[in-house]
Each structure stands twice: as C-alpha cells, then as structure tokens.
Amino acid sequence: MGFKHNKKRNVGLISEFFSRYIAGAFIDGRHNDIATARKIWEKHLHPKSETYKEFVLFNALYESNLKSKEVAYSLLNRAKDVCKNQSQEVLDSEKAALINEVKATLKDKDFFDRPVSNFKTFATVQVLMNAWRGIGFKGDIADLATLEESVLEHMCTPKATNSLENEAEKLTTSEIDSLVVKLMTEKLNKRYENLLSETQRRMLQLYVFSQNDTEKKASLVSLLEDLKTRTLKSVKSPVLTESLDRTVKTKLQEVVKLLEESSYSNILENLGDDLIAFYMTIAKLTEEVESKSE
C-alpha cells in the first residue's frame, strides 16, 4: 500500500505534540512557554479554521467508542463527506503557518519528534482523511477499503472513558497550598525522571484543548473528580499507612486535607495552571501509593 505521511501535518499528532510540550513546561515551571503554546494553538485552530474542522473530524474517528459497526460505518461516511468538501489548499496553507510559528516562536528542535503511543493509528486516520481528498495516497480502491476497515475497527475498539454522572464539584485554585504542591512536584518529578503517566497526559491534553470545547471541559472535570475519589481511597488504606515512614505520612495527610476541605463550586470558571499542576502531582502521588499497596 503506497501513501505519504507527514507527522508535522497530522492534526492528531500536532495536538499530541502540543500536549507534550506543555507537559514539559508544567514540570519545569515555564509558565510563559505554556501561555505562548496555548496562544499559538488558539490562533491557528479557531472554530472557523479548516485545520480546526479537520481536528474535529480526526477526533470523531480516533476517539469514537462505538459498539455497533453499522453506527461506526455511518459516522465514517459522514466524516468522509465533510472531509471531501474541505479545501486542501487552505489546509496546507494553515498548517504551514502553524509549523512555521511553532519553529520560530517555541524554538524547540524536538517539538515534532516527541514519542506518541498509537502512532500508527494516528497516521492511519490522517492518511485516510488525506486519501478522501485525493492527497498523498497512491494505492487502489482495495487499499483505500483496507484503510477504512482499519479505522472502523479502531472506532469499535473499547476505550477507557470517564462519565460525569453527577454535577461536578469544583476546586478553586486559591485553596491550594502552592508550597506543598511545589515541594511534592519537585520530589516526585525527580524520582520519576519527568516521565508522564497516562492520567497526567490525558489531563493536560483535555486542559490545553478545552477552552472552546464544553465536552472536553466536562471530561476534564470528571477526570479530576474521579482522581480525587481514587486518591482519597488509596491514601486512607490501613495496609498502606502502616508501611509508610513519617515524612510520607505527613505529605499524605496534607494531600487528604487539601482534597477534603476544598470547595468544589466553580471549577469550570477557575481552571488554570495552578489547579492542573496540583492534580498532576496528585496523579503521580496516587500511582506511587497504589503501587505500594499491591
């Protein structure tokens, strides 16, 4: 099967690269870089841009979690119709401008070289969308059908999801003890050599792209709420507390206090870097605690 794939112009991978760049900036405390990266994203992927429209289509195909192959096939065909009506010339121009600004402004030589899990699936989805528009695909009808079948299978593959069953409680950043967060973050990041967990990656991705997306905001709220519940359950385990030294127990008590006493009233209005940095730390701490409980 012959086709061309340019990872710098893969809209799904672009979002992943931005997520990873901002994750690194969070860990290093480079808040100006975070703000700059978000401005670049919002400038080039606004609702009226062709790249944003392609991003919505990409997510519809990549993130779908459908039980019926018939429903997936219907969605695939609808995405195909929309995709065919997009202007490849405009897409190319917009992506070129985005790539150039990333290079000129962020000055990060590794921006487009960050490892991404499921890279092959990301490539398959973008190649299929390009093929629908008649770009970069040298295969025949059978090859195109194979691509579509591959994406269909992915759309019907069960994926982890977080449901928002009740009205989300909301944590205000003013109630977070920044010194405790900073100390815990530095300690944990040093131990784990700045590696991000899947929960942290998902949290950052939702945060970065949630400003104009109410669905992603709801998913982020659900993720934070679930993480809070998971953390409180883990750190209160008698088996765990008996095995920890005094220093770690003290840190856990601080975390429990922050989580239990915080008011969940305006999270959608108060999402910010400090709140996400706090929950980034909580996510890593929770994984460490759970590993000790096994």
Structure explained in plain terms:
The chain has 294 residues and is an all-alpha fold. It has helices at residues 11-28, 31-44, 50-62, 69-84, 88-106, 119-132, 141-155, 178-191, 198-208, 214-235, 238-242, 246-261, 267-270, 273-293. It has two domains: 7-155, no CATH class; 173-293, no CATH class. The chain is globular, with a radius of gyration of 21 Å. Helix 10 (214-235) crosses helix 12. It is built from 14 helices and no strands. Helix content is 69%, strand content 0%.
Instruction: Estimate what percentage of residues fall within beta strands.
Output: under 5%
Q: Low-confidence parts lasting 5 or more residues at pLDDT below 50?
A: 161-194
Determine the mean pLDDT. Answer: 78
> How does the overall form come out from the CA principal axes?
globular
Please give the domain count. 2
Helix coverage percent = 55-70%
Task: Please state the CA-atom Rg, rounded to the nearest Å.
Answer: 21 Å
Distance between the termini: 46 Å
Query: How many strands in all?
Result: 0
Structural class: mainly alpha
